[in-house]
Design brief:
The complex is a heterodimer of chains A (555) and B (124).
Chain A: H1 9-16, H2 18-23, E1 27-33, E2 42-47, H3 49-55, H4 67-70, H5 79-89, E3 93-100, E4 106-117, E5 121-128, H6 130-152, E6 156-161, E7 166-170, H7 179-183, E8 196-203, E9 206-214, E10 219-226, H8 228-263, H9 272-302, E11 311-314, H10 315-333, E12 336-343, E13 346-349, H11 351-368, E14 374-382, E15 385-391, H12 414-419, H13 426-436, E16 440-444, E17 451-457, H14 468-492, H15 496-515, H16 519-533, H17 541-554
Parallel strand pairs in A: 12-14
Antiparallel strand pairs in A: 1-2, 1-5, 3-4, 4-5, 6-7, 6-10, 8-9, 9-10, 11-13, 14-15, 15-17, 16-17
Chain B: E1 4-8, H1 12-25, E2 29-33, H2 36-46, E3 50-54, H3 62-71, E4 80-84, H4 91-98, E5 102-105, H5 113-123
Parallel strand pairs in B: 1-2, 1-3, 3-4, 4-5
Helix pairs in contact in B: 2-3
Classes of the chains: A alpha+beta (555), B alpha/beta (124).
């Protein structure tokens, strides 16, 4: 304690505890309220070395001055008034004193306890709380930021328990009236962490999308969004597509039909030049019809309105049917179609839709094949899938086109693709169909030509072998640390019953660990058992326990 | 044995093409109507051997025309095949359940139309 001149009585009192005061970690300032009715007369009479360290100023800078002179900013926060109150009433007080910089960022903070001393003096014990307060401040700011973000969302948010009861709500507009009914079915079976479930509901003419996510243990976040606008747009698009399909198809039907009749020679033989031009017109209307059909198909698939009739299909028969359907086109292109079966199988699929996929792939293969080349469908059953590989001997797919291959209107070498008469939608349709079959379709890298691999779920595939012992062992291993801790706790006990129990537990562990293929755990348990039996020295107990812990960690 | 076919479609161009196809390729006599009322009148007056009936028409649609034909004892026996731009799985079954022989999709290939018609007739 650095004494001021003519110290008042409390300073002398504190002298008795000089060692404590000098060595304490907290800072200490002592003020004397000279005039009990005037809080501006709190005069500094002493402090300790920790106070110098925390404030960064020597005590001599404060000595003899009033609190207002030392820290003018404190009056605004009501601090001198509070100190005076402690001196007058003798009731201690605590607070956090914060010093702010620009933008209201906390630059320094002190946790302050003020306690009364005799003769209207107060002791002010303070600690640097800057880091704690800053962390709290950061947390508050981050929460405010998140709240602002949430407020900017157009959704209603609910925090719900597993049983559907509400914990918290942030409402935007009107939610569905029967919220519980909407959310409850989404909560069973229990969601995995990160899993998301979505359902759409219509309540009183408003369409809602309810999305449920698991956030913390037992807590779920339900996000309810008004999707009426999106639904309206979807309906408008559907209407548009249906109108377009009808309005485009009707005149095309006439043009296509008229050209077909002329080309078919129904009205007599056309002069050679005319016949050629009619042929051109016909090929192009064929393409337009295909394009419109493809667009309508794809739209249906993307909207998830494609209904599949899944039946078991023999893989070879399916490939043969596809080859038969394409044989005419292949013949006129001088391309040979063949099937090679490495291992036959049965797939679960919609025959018409899968034939559509195959004819698409075969028609691409034929179009890009040189004359006299072969296009092969290779059938190979592998586990729970059957793979159909459609390979050709054409120019292959340029590496820079492979990424976009399954996108709409992404043709291999655009000019070539169009000259070859494709619509640019074929592979996108194939993919949509295959995906809906729970299958995959991909371009397989090959040295020559192009190979598309189509994997479909097989029927009657052997179930994956159940590793019963493995499962039991995993469960046993998971429970092992608990057993070992129980054993160690029993070893520390002194009463004979507990020691007896410890022996039983060690014995059981010795046996079961062996059974589950954990020899080191078993050996260590046997060692403890020997110590408890007295066949090994007591002094080995610590080593035996350490060996057991190590063995469990390894398991 | 089919000799006369009544063709009902609101599109004049389609009627022209189908008429040429049915007469030149199929070798049948053809009659045509551009709406439901005309179709019913022509059917009961001329008693064709077969009716090709468009599904979507302004005014009376195809299924309604079919129901009226079936309700009239003079026309109840005449086989009907629908012509439609929308043939989807399930649709054909629906049309058959209404009493049609089947459905042929538009756009049809006029060189094949008579063949498709004959196939449906043979199956019946």
């Amino acid at each position: 304690m650095t004494p001021a001149e003519a110290p008042p009585p409390p300073a002398r009192d504190l002298d008795r505890y000089r060692d404590i005061v000098e060595n304490m970690e907290s800072g200490l300032h002592v003020y004397h309220l000279e005039d009990p009715d005037d809080d501006r007369t709190l005069r500094f009479i002493g402090g300790n070395p920790a106070a110098e360290r925390i404030t960064g100023a020597p005590l001599s800078a404060f000595i003899g001055r009033t609190l207002d002179e030392n820290f003018p900013a404190l009056r605004e926060a009501g601090i001198p008034q509070a100190y005076a109150e402690v001196a007058r009433t003798g009731r201690p007080w605590r607070t956090d004193q914060l010093l702010y910089g620009d933008d209201r960022v906390v630059t320094a903070a002190y946790a302050v306890r003020v306690f009364p001393l005799p003769d209207r003096c107060v002791g002010v014990v303070f600690e640097d709380a800057t880091e704690r307060v800053r962390a709290q401040d950061d947390l508050r700011r981050s929460e405010a930021r998140q709240r602002a973000l949430l407020d900017a969302l157009p959704d209603t948010l609910y925090v719900v328990r597993r049983d559907g009861s509400l914990l918290d709500v942030r409402r935007r507009g009107e939610g569905p009236a029967s919220l519980a009914a909407a959310i409850a079915p989404l909560l069973a079976p229990p969601l995995d962490a990160g899993e998301e479930r979505v359902v759409e509901r219509t309540d009183a003419g408003v369409d809602f999308e309810v999305r449920v996510l698991r956030t913390a243990a037992g807590e779920h976040l339900a996000i309810v969004r008004d999707i009426s606008e999106r639904k309206r747009a979807e309906r408008r698009k559907d209407e548009f597509i249906s109108i377009v399909s009808h309005e485009l198809r009707t005149p095309l039907t006439s043009i296509h039909g008229a050209l077909g009749l002329i080309d078919g020679g129904v009205l007599g033989e056309a002069p050679p030049g005319v016949a050629d031009l009619v042929q051109v017109a016909r090929t192009n209307t064929d393409r337009l019809v295909r394009l419109i059909n493809d667009m309508l198909d794809l739209d249906k698939m993307e909207a998830g309105r494609l209904e599949l009739v899944l039946v078991p299909l023999d893989a070879d028969a399916l490939a043969d049917a596809a080859i038969a359907a394409m044989s005419g086109a292949a013949e006129s292109a001088g391309v040979r179609l063949r099937r090679v079966t490495e291992r036959g199988g049965t797939v679960l699929g919609d025959r018409d839709r899968l034939l559509q996929v195959f004819t698409n792939l075969l028609s691409n293969a034929v179009r890009f094949s040189p004359p006299h080349a072969a296009v092969t469908i290779t059938v190979r059953a592998e586990g729970d899938r059957v793979r159909f590989a459609v390979s050709d001997q054409g120019p292959g797919v340029p590496p820079d086109r492979t990424d976009l291959l399954f996108h709409k209107f992404a043709q291999v070498g655009d000019a070539v693709g169009r000259r070859k008469g494709g619509t640019g939608l074929g592979l996108a349709i194939c993919k949509a169909i295959v995906v809906q079959h729970d299958g995959t379709i991909a371009l397989v890298p090959t040295a020559r030509g192009a190979t598309f691999a189509l994997d479909l779920p097989a029927v009657g595939a052997p179930m994956p072998a159940v590793d019963l012992l493995g499962d039991l062992r995993a469960a046993y291993t998971a429970a092992l640390p608990l057993q070992v801790e129980a054993l160690i706790a029993l070893l520390d006990a002194t009463d004979p019953a507990a020691r007896n129990e410890a022996r039983t537990l060690a014995h059981r562990l010795h046996g079961t660990a062996g059974t589950y293929g954990l020899p080191r755990v078993s050996d260590a348990a046997a060692w403890i058992e020997r110590v408890l039996d007295g066949t090994a020295p007591r002094t080995e107990l610590d080593d035996a326990v350490a060996a057991l812990r190590a063995a469990v960690l390894e398991a | 044995m089919v000799r006369t076919v009544l063709l009902v479609d609101d599109e004049a161009d389609i009627r022209t093409i189908a008429r040429i196809s049915l007469s030149r390729v199929g070798g049948w006599e053809t009659l045509s109507a551009e709406n439901g009322e005309q179709a019913l009148a022509t059917a009961s007056a001329s008693l064709p051997d077969l009716i090709l009936l468009d599904v979507m028409m302004p005014g009376m649609d195809g299924p309604t025309v079919l129901a009226r034909l079936r309700a009239d004892p003079r026309t109840a026996h005449i086989p009907v095949i629908f012509l439609t731009a929308k043939v989807q799985r399930g649709d054909v079954g629906h049309y058959v359940s209404l009493g049609a022989l089947g459905a042929i999709a538009k756009p049809f290939d006029p060189m094949r139309l008579p063949l498709d018609v004959k196939r449906l007739l043979e199956r019946a």
